[in-house]
Structure formats: structure tokens, C-alpha cells
Amino acid sequence: MVDVDFCVVGAGFAGLTAALRLKQAGHSVTVLEARDRVGGRTYTENRSDGSWLDRGGAWIGPGQDRIYALMDEFGVPSYKQFVDGDAMMFLDGQTYKYRGTVPLSLSPVAVANLGVVFAELTQMCKSIPPDAPWTAPKALRWDRLTWAKWLDANTLSKPARLLLESSVAGLYTSAASELSLLFCLYQMAAAGGPSFVLGVEGAAEDARPVGGMGAIYRAVSAELDDAILLAHPVRGITQDDAGVTVRSDTAEIRARRVIVTVPVAIASHIVYEPMLPVDRALLHQRMPSGAVFKIAMIFDEPFWRADRLSGQSFAPGSAATLTIDSCTEAGTPGILTAITEGAEARALCRLAPADRRQAVLAAVAERFGDRARSPVDYVEHNWSVERYSGGGMISHAPPGVLTEFGPALRRPCGRIHWAGTESSAQMYGFIDGAVRSGERAAAEVVDHEARARV
After folding, report:
1. Number of domains into which the chain is organized
2. Model confidence band, residue 200 (pLDDT cutoffs 50, 70, 90)
3. Where FAD is bound, by residue (predicted)?
4. Which of 450, 424, 441 is nearest to 65 (CA)?
5. What is the pLDDT of residue 409?
6. Which terminus in the chain has less CB density within 10 A, N or C?
7. β-pairing verdict for 236-239 and 271-273
8. Is 401 within 8 Å of 178 (Cβ atoms)?
9. How much is the average pLDDT of 63-90?
10. What digits encode the pLDDT tens for the residues 371-411?
């Protein structure tokens, strides 16, 4: 048995940050990670040509102060997302080329409808306390509605509806009919409002770390060194009056307290003794993830740039819902990433790999021409079937969950504390939110121990 001050379950950004802050404060810590790598729902692949691919979370932006602070701490610079050239959008049988946030060539009704909806969402978000959205004045009413139902009542234009439905539902890798309106507003409010979540120019994630997310998490893991045990999925956590015992298949860690950072959607895979309080146990059953593919198509050069295209395209319902220029700061090779989520991702799951590749490349070639059919490499990552991610990038709340079980998101259960981006009151669902949650949880366990000794 290993005896340490604190144990951390999960070596994503939340777990790594929590462990780092605890070690820097002079405490001994062990991190148990189920995968054979660190990074969690981020995963940077370094390639033989010196380039790299972010197979998971990749972007950062304004207001994400804690991930930037971590980058500064380890000397990781950033570079701006390539946006020169036209973006493309395919809605209701129409093709739009545009620059900025939305095509101004949409019908006047659609543009006006988008403006009204955006203004309404902004006002609604102002009434949401990000640290306790279930206490908002209209929380009960909004938590009974789905995002889809709210759009039914507030969109008059079919293109506006498609755009708003797909943009928000895509974040949660699930259908709009699965999402609580209160949850969507909470996540927007946690990021400062709908501008950030809906990708409004000047407010959205617009930069990437040089070297990918791996440049950050590898630096942190090097600092933690042998405190991280890989390929150690936690099977059980037992707590008593003196501490906790955390067990994997081959290790047993004894600590004063434990920070669990795994996604809410899979936290129930751990056996807790004694059993968790009912609200927390039921929360684990009620915050699922969705389906998402992230597919990188690598070309000798970013040929779309010569065509005065930004690489960004959006086509709800297609095999490649979103594409984006994912080149490194060097600009070569050309990397175009397709991200497909929700129902479309589940449909891709049902295809054989060769058929899936053909469907994705055909969808991309319709936008960028025949050169898109022949990448020099094609790298597919299906997060939908990642055992230790539980599905898409964010666990979401269906109707009724936040008002009934929301207070359990961050509340400690005895000596068990919770982190992960889903537990963050700021930047929920983003990597910055994971970092914030790790720092909060690290301070929390130290504070609880200090008060227990008084």
C-alpha cells in the first residue's frame, strides 16, 4: 500500500492541475489514471514529420485565464487560428460563403431572427448564477424545457433554427431534444454569455497552444513524474473516519482525501464504500455524454488557403458537420479537421471503416473540390467509444436534472471531492474549466484538512 497525503483519480487537465497544485504546496500525492497515457479528453499525437495532431480538445480563447496561466507557467506559447478567407455554410439546400460570424446573405427574416434570439439568450444568461444555476428565478420553468422546445417557440426561420439547433446541440454531442434549456443557459453563462459558446467573432476560442494540448499536459506530467500511475483504472474507493483507500487492479493508495476527476458520465463505474449520498449517486446516472468523431485529413499543403477559403465549413446533417483548418503554427502540412457529433456521429459508427472514410471524404470534397478526396493521411478518432471518456466532450444535463441534482455537482461526499470541467462554475465544458476545477479541488482538500485538525 502507498501512503500519501492526497490521491487524485484521473490524469486529464483537472487531475493533473489538482495534483500539480498539491505538490507545489508541499503535499505528497498519487494520481491514478485508467488509460496508458495522460491528457484525458485531450490527446496530442506527435508525428514523424515534426507536426502534431490534437485528436481531442484543441482550442483556447478570451477569458480562459487559467489555461493561459498554466501555459505561461510552463513556457508554452500560443498561435492564432487561421481565419483568412471565406467560411462556408450549407443550410436548407443553400450554400453561403461569408466572413465573420454568420452569412449576411441569409434571408432578412433569418438574420433578424438570429439577432432577436441572440439578444434574448444574452438577457436570459444574465439571470443565471453560474455557481448555482438551479437558483435562477426561472430555473424550474427553463429546466422543464428542452433546447429544441425553446427553439420551436422562438425561431421563425428554418435556416436560423438549423443553425442554432446544430451549433448548441453539437457542443454536447447530442440532439437538441435531449438538452435542458436551463443547462444550455448555464453553460453559456459560465463562459460569459452566448457569444463565446456560439462562436461570435472576437469572443470565441480563437487560438491554440504551439505543440498542441500535449505541450501543456506533458510538461505538467513531467513535473509530477512518478506520482502518476498509468493503466490503473480505479475500481473502488472506501472512506472511513481517518481517510480513504483507493484501489485499482494492482495498487492500493491510502490518503487523507481523494479528488475524483473522471467525467460524470462514468463516475458510477467506481464502487464507493459506503455508498455515495443519494443525490450524487443519482446524478451519475443522469448526466450522459454523446457521440463525436474527430477526423484529421492531412495534405501536403493547405490547398484551401490558395482558394481563399478559411477551411471552416458547417453543414448540419452531413457526414462532416464541421470542418476547420487545424494546421500547426508552421502552416504545413495542410491539416483539415472534420468534427461530426450527435445523431450524425452515431450514424457514422454504424458504417464499416472504409465506408465511413468514403462518406466523410465525399462530404468534404463537395465543399473543397476533388483534392480533398486524396489526403496523404487520414486519422480518425471516435470518442464515442472511449471507455474512460464515456462519450463526447461534455456530460450534459437533460430536463429536470439541474434543479433536482445540480447542487451535488461540486459538494464533497465526506472525504471524496469532485473536479472535472463539468464541476466548474466558469468555462464549464472547456479545458479552462477543467483547470479551474482542479485548482479549486486542490484548495478545497487542503482547507478541509486544515479545519479538521483545528
Report:
1. 3
2. low
3. 33-34, 234, 422
4. 424
5. 97
6. C
7. parallel
8. no
9. 96
10. 999 999 999 999 999 999 988 888 999 999 999 999 999 99
Phi and psi based region of residue 9 (left: phi greater than 0; alpha: psi -120 to 50; beta: remaining): beta
Whether residue 224 is contained in a domain is answered as: yes
Q: Which of 154, 171, 197 is the last residue of a domain?
A: 197
Which residues sit opposite 258 in a β-bridge? 7, 416
pLDDT reported for residue 101: 77
Residues 226 and 298 in one domain: no
The verdict on 364 and 275 lying in the same domain is no
- Provide the residue type at 128 as one letter: I
* Whether residue 422 sits in one domain with residue 283: yes
> Where residue 181 sits, what CATH number does that domain have?
1.10.405.10
Give yes or no: residues 310 and 375 share one domain: yes
**pLDDT surpassing 80 at residue 204:** no
Name the domain boundary from 168, 197, 226.
Answer: 197
Say yes or no: 251 and 279 in one domain: yes
Question: Do 284 and 328 share a domain, yes or no?
Answer: no
- Note the pLDDT of residue 198: 72
Q: What Å distances lie between residue 326 and 121, 330, 429, CA to CA?
A: 30, 11, 21
My answer on whether 131 and 249 are in the same domain is no
Tell me, what CATH number does 432's domain have? Answer: 3.50.50.60
What is the spatial distance between Cα 326 and Cα 304, in angstroms, rounded to a whole number?
12
**In which region does residue 235 sit, left (phi positive, over 0), alpha (psi from -120 to 50) or beta (all else)?**
alpha
Residue 168 is predicted with a pLDDT of 86
- Confidence band (pLDDT; 50, 70, 90) for 454? low
Q: Does residue 205 lie in a domain region?
A: no
38 and 11 Cβ atoms separated by less than 8 Å: yes
Domain membership of residue 255 (yes or no) is: yes
**Same structural domain, 379 and 347:** yes
Residue spans of beta strands (DSSP E) within 186-333? 207-209, 228-229, 236-239, 244-247, 252-255, 257-260, 271-273, 292-299, 309-314, 322-325
Contact 81, 208 (CB under 8 A): yes
Output phi, psi for 212, to 5 deg: 75, 180
Known binding residues for FAD are: 33-34, 234, 422
Residue type present at position 286:
R
Could you read off the pLDDT of 319-356 as tens digits, one per residue? 999 999 999 999 999 999 999 999 999 999 999 999 99
CA 313, CA 59: separation in Å to the nearest integer?
17
Does residue 274 have a cis bond before it (omega within 30 degrees)?
A: yes
- What number of other Cβ atoms are within 10 A of residue 249's Cβ? 9
Q: Could you list the residue range(s) of the whole structural domain that residue 147 is in?
A: 104-197
The one-letter amino acid code at 90 reads F
Identify the residue whose cell numbers are 457542443: 171
Residue 130 forms part of a structural domain: yes
